[in-house]
Every structure is written in C-alpha cells, then in structure tokens.
Amino acid sequence: MGGKRIMIALMAWGLGIAAAHALSMPLNMPLNGPTSPPAGHVQFCADHPDDCRAGGKPNRVVRLTPSTHKKLLGINVAVNHAIVPATDMDAFGVVERWSYPALVGDCEDYVIQKRHDLIAAGFPDSALLITVVRDERGDGHAVLTVRTDLGDLILDNKTDTIRLWSDTPYRFIKRQSGRMPSAWDKIGDRRTPMVGSVRRN
C-alpha cells in the first residue's frame, strides 16, 4: 500500500520521477553521523542566531499531500525567479558569505530564503535542511532538503521542478541536522552519479 501511494503521489504531483523507476530509488538519504558545519553556515548562525535555534520538535517530516506539494512548488518557483544569480564576490566582495538575499544571491542564499519562507508558511523547521552537494560538474552547490513521508525532496535554484534526492545528478555530502539547526550530519551517498544536467524548467 505504501509503494502504491508513493507511485500515485509522484505521478500525480509531477515530481519528475518516472513511476517505474521511482520505487527502486532510495527515498531517504543515508546519514553517517555528525560532521562539521560549513564555515559559511557557522558565520550565518553568528549573524542570525534565531535561525539556528531549534524552533519546534526535532526530526519532523512533512506529510506530502497535493496541498503541501503545491506550497512547496510555489515557494521554490517564487524564490528562484525573485533572485538574480550572483557570486558572493560579485554581491559582497568576499569569497563566501551565507545570507538572506536582497535582489541577488548564490545557491546558499536561495536555500536560506526558501527555508525562511517555508517556515513562515507553517512547515516544521526540522524538516527543512540546508544540504551541501557536488553538482554534475563536481562543483560545490547547496540545495534545500524537505523531509517528507514520501522521501527526501530537493528544492534547487537550478530548476523549478521538485525532485526526489536520488533523482538528481548530485553527489550528496552533508546536511543540516534535523535535531538542531546549528548541527550537521554526513550523508553516506554511495550511488553512481546520474549522467545529465539540471536545467531551469
């Protein structure tokens, strides 16, 4: 019954996963214990301590329904199109700075804004986790993981489509902990990276 629900949900809500392939994919990222947070997040927490305190119950998951999926999609699209991509050097004159974007920002800034907007929309903070990956070119990239009862979904500034984490071409490295927003966990991603690229659609 659970597998049937997953298949129907993924098909009906357009998560970009082929139904026949979806059930063979890992739905949740395997975690390998605590790890050090990125330096940019440490500084972000120093600048915005309220964003790095636990605001509710730890390790929550979002029940994925047509309504919650619509909200996720709406915020992903809205933030993607509201911010002009720019490097931290272009925006702030420094190599790395995680912050709330004004008009421009890089991948971490998109993620921070999406997390903020989803919390404001009623989503539990412990289900919304900043995540560091290697993209299809091997470069560092950040996305937002939304932990749901149908698997870990990815909100990405490179695409308006919401995908299951294992349906992306990324190698997942570490993510914010669901226990405490200032802590991070290592991801044990042993998948073979997918061939292809993620495009805005």
Account of the 3D structure:
By secondary structure, the chain is of the alpha+beta class. The chain has one domain: Roll (C8orf32 fold). Helix content is 30%, strand content 23%. It has a seven-stranded antiparallel beta sheet with strand order 1-9-8-4-5-6-7. A two-stranded parallel sheet has the order 2-3. Helix 4 (66-82) packs across helix 6 (107-120). It is globular, with a radius of gyration of 16 Å.
CATH fold naming = C8orf32 fold
Specify the structural class.
Answer: alpha+beta
Rg calc:
16 Å
Average per-residue pLDDT, rounded, comes to: 87
Task: Give a quick rundown of the structure.
This protein has helices spanning 2-12, 19-22, 39-47, 66-82, 88-92, 107-120, and strands at 31-35, 84-85, 104-105, 128-134, 140-148, 151-156, 159-164, 171-176, 184-187.
Provide keyphrases for this structure.
201 residues; alpha+beta; C8orf32 fold; two-stranded parallel ribbon; 9 strands; 23% strand
Which SSEs are present, and which pair or pack?
Blueprint: H1 2-12, H2 19-22, E1 31-35, H3 39-47, H4 66-82, E2 84-85, H5 88-92, E3 104-105, H6 107-120, E4 128-134, E5 140-148, E6 151-156, E7 159-164, E8 171-176, E9 184-187
Parallel strand pairs: 2-3
Antiparallel strand pairs: 1-9, 4-5, 4-8, 5-6, 6-7, 8-9
Helix pairs in contact: 4-6
